[in-house]
């Protein structure tokens, strides 16, 4: 799917595919350096993080293992419910491991704040965060984020894993939705 296929649903492209891919390579370079000589477990947060996980994992030169958690706080809407539900837990015991949580977006920050707290209680060697996007004007909880792709305006975005009612995740770029799609005037 590309911008032309989206027709009237797309308001504008915020971050192009090329910009995203260049940023992932840059973040991977930093992660390679920071964890050099060690082994890293990258944990993707389903479903939004699938694209950034797949691209980041292939850009890293470190030996990595991949695991996944599924949590959900948005349901089908554009606002967080504030309640994080675990739909799938890790398969791996992370005690003593270096863990990097990979996310598509930090919006209110509630999902990652809850998740990092949860993971730290399992006694890993370290837990850090890598997120493709962050909305500084929407963040409600302080979060220590080591690797961040782009700070973006406080608008609902789609693409590169991010959905609206499960659609648009497969767009290779980040865009904003036309208001008519979600019922705003
Ligand atoms: O910072 P927050 O306000 O908590 O929002 C960020 C989270 O919300 C979205 O996931 P969602 O719960 O919609 O599930 P999904 O990844 O399956 O789309 C997104 O992928 C992040 O995981
Ligand atoms: O802006 C967003 N778009 C899609 N999903 C999201 N989950 C949190 N924020 C967003
Ligand atoms: Mg998510």
Automatic annotation (TrEMBL):
Reaction(s) catalysed (UniProt annotation): GMP + diphosphate = guanine + 5-phospho-alpha-D-ribose 1-diphosphate; IMP + diphosphate = hypoxanthine + 5-phospho-alpha-D-ribose 1-diphosphate
Give the protein name, as stated in the record.
Answer: Hypoxanthine phosphoribosyltransferase
**Which pathway does this polypeptide act in?**
Purine metabolism; GMP biosynthesis via salvage pathway; GMP from guanine: step 1/1; Purine metabolism; IMP biosynthesis via salvage pathway; IMP from hypoxanthine: step 1/1
GO MF entries:
guanine phosphoribosyltransferase activity; hypoxanthine phosphoribosyltransferase activity; magnesium ion binding; nucleotide binding
For this protein, the record's Gene3D superfamilies field holds:
3.40.50.2020
Return the EC number. 2.4.2.8
| Compartment annotation | Cytoplasm
To which protein family does this belong?
Belongs to the purine/pyrimidine phosphoribosyltransferase family.
Q: Which organism does this record belong to? A: Streptosporangium saharense
An example GO BP is: hypoxanthine metabolic process
Q: What is its main location?
A: cytoplasm
Keyword Nucleotide-binding attributed: yes
Tell me the NCBIfam families matching this sequence: HGPRTase
List the InterPro entries hit by this protein, alphabetically. Answer: HGPRT, Hxn_phspho_trans, PRTase-like, PRTase_dom
Give Gene Ontology CC terms. Answer: cytosol
**SUPFAM superfamilies given in the database record:** PRTase-like
Q: Which residues form the Phosphoribosyltransferase domain?
A: 19-164
Its required cofactor(s), as named, are: Mg(2+)
Top EC class, one word: transferase
Short name of one Pfam family for this protein? Answer: Pribosyltran
Per UniProt, the keywords (alphabetical) are: Cytoplasm, Glycosyltransferase, Magnesium, Metal-binding, Nucleotide-binding, Purine salvage, Transferase
Please, which domain of life does this record's source organism belong to?
A: Bacteria
């Amino acid at each position: 799917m590309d911008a032309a296929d989206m027709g009237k649903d797309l308001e504008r492209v915020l971050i192009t595919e090329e910009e995203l891919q260049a940023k992932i390579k840059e973040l991977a370079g930093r992660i390679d350096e920071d964890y050099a000589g060690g082994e890293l477990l990258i944990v993707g947060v389903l479903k939004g993080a699938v694209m950034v996980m797949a691209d980041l994992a292939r850009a890293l030169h470190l030996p990595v293992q991949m695991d996944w958690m599924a949590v959900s706080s948005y349901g089908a809407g554009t606002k967080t419910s504030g309640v994080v539900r675990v739909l799938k837990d890790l398969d791996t015991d992370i005690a003593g491991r270096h863990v990097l949580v990979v996310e598509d977006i930090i919006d209110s920050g509630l999902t990652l704040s809850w998740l990092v707290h949860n993971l730290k209680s399992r006694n890993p060697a370290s837990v850090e965060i890598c997120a493709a996007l962050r909305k500084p004007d929407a963040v409600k909880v302080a979060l220590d984020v080591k690797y961040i792709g782009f700070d973006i305006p406080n608008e609902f975005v789609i693409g590169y894993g991010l959905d609206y009612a499960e659609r648009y995740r497969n767009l290779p770029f980040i865009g904003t939705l036309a208001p008519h799609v979600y019922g705003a005037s």
